[in-house]
Design goal:
By secondary structure, this protein is an alpha+beta fold. Helix content is 33%, strand content 29%. It has one domain: Glutamine Phosphoribosylpyrophosphate, subunit 1, domain 1 (4-Layer Sandwich), CATH 3.60.20.10. Helix 4 runs antiparallel to helix 5 and helix 5 packs across helix 6.
Length: 227
């Protein structure tokens, strides 16, 4: 059995240098802006230990509710399963309470699900972001064991070490959603250029108090808009 594709569950908590990597190649990015949030992920699907690109159409950015979205890096089946579960719980919460689920509540629920599966983990790194009813935007970062941290900007996946430098240099408090979108595209352009496991375009989700905007961009469009 290929341990790169099917790692021993005990291996995932060891340093990545020791286990040789367990997540498929990907780059997911999230940024908090003064008037909303921006989430993005590229489209390429490949697996550790393999030079084959399995798909150029992988969807790793998800609209969970009208005010919450997620971007993931990991196994496609695991991220799909996790997102479907959160979507179902958020609908039930809305029906029972007559109000939308907050971003923090969605992140905590996802954390509880992942922690409950820690001995048979869902192999996905997840960025959950959105804007609450009072207009406050927020972003949370989760690992496969359910750890949850809030931040102003974050990256996940094999291209994260490249993209985070662009975010660090370009982010500032009070950035607008339009400026955040351009910053995310700059970071994604760098990740796609330098990380062989990332590429084939980018899905972008912008959430503001006025609604959500989902966009797909080709690599050539990313290069033009990020200039």
């Amino acid at each position: 059995m290929n341990r790169d594709l099917f790692p021993d569950q005990r291996d995932i908590f060891q340093p990545e240098a020791q286990r040789g990597g367990y997540l498929p190649g990907a780059t997911a990015i999230g940024v908090v802006c003064k008037d909303g949030v921006v989430l993005a992920a590229e489209k390429r699907v490949s697996y550790p230990g393999s030079t084959m690109v399995l798909s150029k159409l992988g969807k790793k950015v998800f609209k969970i509710t009208d005010n919450i979205g997620a971007a993931c890096a990991g196994f496609m089946a695991d991220m799909d399963s996790l997102i479907r579960t959160i979507e179902a719980h958020s609908r039930l919460y809305n029906l029972e309470s007559r109000k939308p689920m907050s971003v923090r509540a969605a992140a905590k629920l996802m954390s509880n699900i992942l922690f409950g599966r820690r001995f048979a983990p869902l192999l996905t790194e997840t960025l959950v972001a959105g804007i609450d009813a009072d207009g406050t935007p927020s972003l949370f970062v989760l690992d496969p064991a359910g750890s949850v941290l809030d931040d102003k900007f974050a990256c996940a996946g094999t291209g994260a070490s490249i993209a985070i430098g662009v975010l660090e240099s370009g982010y500032r408090d009070g950035i607008s959603a339009e400026e955040g979108k351009k910053l995310v595209l700059n970071a994604m352009k760098s990740a796609i250029a330098r990380d062989a496991a990332s590429g084939d375009g980018c899905d972008l989700l912008v959430i503001t108090k006025d609604g959500t905007e989902e966009t797909f961009m080709q690599v050539s469009q990313i290069e033009q808009m990020s200039l």
